[in-house]
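Holo model, adenosine-5'-triphosphate. Inputs:
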Amino acid sequence: MLIIDRISSSYDQVRVLSDISMNIKEGEVLGLLGRNGAGKSTLLKSIMGLIKIDEGTIRLDDVVLSKKLAHEIPECGIGYIPQGRRLFPQLTVEENLKMGLYTRNSNNDVLDWALSLFPVLKTRLKQKSGTLSGGEQQMLATARALCLKPRYILMDEPSEGLMPKLIETIFDIVEKLKSENVSVLLVEQKIEGTLRISDRIVFIENGTLKEETTPEQLNDNPEPLEKYVGVKSQKDAGSQSFK
Ligand SMILES: Nc1ncnc2c1ncn2[C@@H]1O[C@H](COP(=O)(O)OP(=O)(O)OP(=O)(O)O)[C@@H](O)[C@H]1O
Ligand SMILES: [Mg+2]
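Output:
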């Protein structure tokens, strides 16, 4: 289990996250929802050690991640796909994937596994990643993160900038990860899809965790959706995002 225990984080002494506690269980998809600027990306960066936390601890089972350096955290089994994907656009698909492999001394079996989940990439290994479509780039970013053989993946708005048809692909990707027993912490603005594939949902507002619930509970009582992301019901959330 990935355990976030009472963490607080700041930028230049301005507090952005306050006293956040949550867990991500083995094999689950946890949806993290909140408005722009709520602190979602900051929470992911804090887990990855990219921002020093002021207080609290982050653990993966018995391993204290918050004592480690940023480059050691992927080696512990945590994959991260940042907002905006951050591929190397001048490198080919294959070169991008190999960057992933080197980071954790993974072998070609891992690469084959990652590619087997996204067969379209196999046909594009020599293409420069900057010329891939948005959906293909997201598949590549995910496949690259998988080259670390992570047990947990943190995904920051993977559907951002994609056309509606491709957004479904993103949710399919998350479901595939879950079926491979990879746990996912999913930050998304696309509510309906997030509720469909998540086991649990947490809401964050102004850097504070407000509510932990399930898609089923939100179906019965959609009030937190309105309160924290401005969507009236799951039905309203249909094609809507709250940006
Ligand atoms: N590098 C930084 N330096 C100073 N302040 C920052 C920095 N990065 C983020 N912030 C501030 O921290 C707060 C939380 O930002 P964060 O990026 O975590 O929000 P978010 O929930 O991911 O929003 P979005 O939905 O727009 O991606 C915001 O007020 C933001 O302006
Ligand atoms: Mg963000």
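Residues 11-12, 16, 34, 36-42, 83 surround adenosine-5'-triphosphate (ligand 1) (CB under 6 Å). The chain has one domain: 2-29+39-205.
Archived with the compound record.
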